[in-house]
Structures are given as structure tokens and as C-alpha cells.
Amino acid sequence: MPQLLTEAQLSEAVEHLRQGELVAFPTETVYGLGALALNPEAVAKIFAAKGRPSHNPLIVHVREAQAARELVTAWPETATRLVERFWPGPLTLVLPRAAVVPDLVTAGGPTVALRSPAHPLAQQLLAAVQAPLAAPSANRSGQLSPTTAAHVLASQLPGLDLILDGGPCSGGLESTVLDLSRPTPRLLRPGLVTLPELEALIGPITVGAVDAATLPSPGLLNKHYAPRTALECADDADELNFLKNLYETAGLKVGVLTLPADPRTASRELFARLHDLDAAGFDRVLTIWPPEEPAWMAIRDRLRRASADE
Ligand code: TXA
Ligand code: MG
Predict the structure, then answer these.
(1) What is the DSSP-derived secondary structure letter of residue 97?
(2) C-alpha dihedral (168, 6, 155, 135), degrees to nearest 10
(3) Ligand 1 atom at minimum distance from 189 CA
(4) Could you read off the pLDDT of 99-128 as tens digits, one per residue?
(5) Does 174 contact ligand 1 (Cβ within 6 A)?
């Protein structure tokens, strides 16, 4: 699978974006649904296509740190350290927004989320369009994130007629979201960059949503990333087998999600396996909770939300 676009494909994508249209593109985490971040009409199309509530802000994708600094009013020294180590890569930083960033992107809030994606095609696109791109995951709101161009195609997002295929995403889980806009850094969404990796660089980090009075990260809402088929997590193999027998005795078709033992591989394959299990027509999917360890934190988070009742 080619990781880069031909000149003709690239100019078509750039032209599309400059006309205020949507373009889905690969990143190293998941596929993004992109539009010019500084063009409110274009950004509005993202919300319409996903059926995304307007109170859920978007991540803005930039080529490198200098482009990010133009979109914020403060750039703490911790940000410099983090981007030197993790950009381009699966780390999103939340910082005080500059006035150029449209309200729609930030959901009217005082901060903007920024990241520089590592996928060569995403970098190629950002370099050619020479503008920041707002891009949530390219799925309908609340559903599984896409890790292949075929997943994006299958979700049939209205208003999306250009999908750039850069092969399966190497990371497979959405970026780590870290809020640096207040005195103590706060982890809003666990991802491929782990908590210990971040803390080793910048010291203690608070985990989880802020109080209800401030803007939450809707990625922290309970029900999210949900497959259509009900998912249930067991504590161990015994419990899984018990549940499997129980459901099968009741006449249900039960699928089992088995995750690779290595957390990197498991991250890469989680959404793809859930997409496949969804397509297979099971009544229920069972899996076993991975270990309660930092390397599994993001996967446990996605499983917890995919299996939440609401
Ligand atoms: O890996 C990723 O981050 C992918 C790829 C496409 O880059 N994008 C992605 O976007 O996962 P999305 O929209 O599905 O998730 C963005 C998350 C949401 O949980 C949103 O609430 C949070 O980031 N977020 C965005 N802006 C924020 C802000 N200003 N403050 C707090 N949370 C924010
Ligand atoms: Mg998403």
C-alpha cells in the first residue's frame, strides 16, 4: 500500500480542502475527517457529516510545533519538551486558544487541542495545503474509530467524497490528550503515549476529567467508541467461558475478542477486530480485561467505553 500520494492526487486533495470540502486522511492513530481548521463553514461540515454534538471540540492537526504556536496564546516550557520528544506523533496538547481559531473548533471554549500526526501521507497533505486541519476520527459520532480507508468508506459519512488511502493505521488508537492549559497537567484521554512516558518528562499529571463546571473532554464520556454488537468484558478465562455457555444456552451467537499479548499490537488491532466482529452478526462479543498496567491503560479505557451501558 503506497504511503504517499501522487502529485495529481495531492493537488486534488488540496483543491478540495481549499474549497471548504471534507477530505478523510490516514494518521498513525486512526483515520481523520479533515477540513480547513480556520474556515468555520468547512468545520461545520465535519460536525454535520459525523452527527457530532457541537459541544465536542475538535483536534487541530499541524505540520510541526511552529504552526501550533501560531494557534495559541501561551506555550509552556513543558510543551516544548513534550513536542521535541513526541511530535510528530500520537500526543495532543490542549492549550489556551488564539483568536484566529474558530469557536466551532473549540466548542466555544478557551482552549484548543493540537497535534502533529506522524503518518507520511498526513505530513504530505499538511505541507501541501499549508494550513492547519481540524480532524476528528472519520466515523459517525459515538461509533468505532476507523483504522483503514475501508472502514471510513463503510461509514458513509454524508458530504464526504474524498478518502485518501494510506493503508492500515500503525497505531490504531486515538492520540493521548493532555491538557496543559492549567497549572497542573491533566490527562484527558489515555492513548499510545503512556502516562509514565509523559510523567518522566514533565512530572506529575492528574488523570481524568475536570470538575463538571469546566469543559469536559467528551472523549471521556462513558458510552463512546461503541460497536453495534453488545460487548462484555470478563475478569478472566473462567468468567468468559461461564458467560459464553450461559448466552449460548440461551440461543445467542457469541463472538470472542482475543487480543494479542503485546499492548502495541493489541492497540493496532483493537478497532479492526471490533469492526470485523460487528460485521460477523454475533449477538454478543466477549473479551477478557487486559492487565491493569500503564501500557494497557488506553485499551482498557476504550474497552470500558465500548462496553458501557450508556
Ligand atoms: O488520534 C487522534 O486524536 C484522532 C486523529 C484523527 O488525529 N482524532 C481524534 O479526534 O480522535 P476525536 O474528535 O475523535 O477526539 C478528540 C478528543 C475528544 O475527546 C475531544 O473532546 C477532545 O479531543 N478535545 C478536543 N479539543 C479539546 C479541548 N479544547 N479541550 C479538551 N478536550 C478536547
Ligand atoms: Mg472519535
Answers:
(1) B
(2) 90
(3) 19
(4) 999 999 999 999 999 999 999 999 999 999
(5) yes
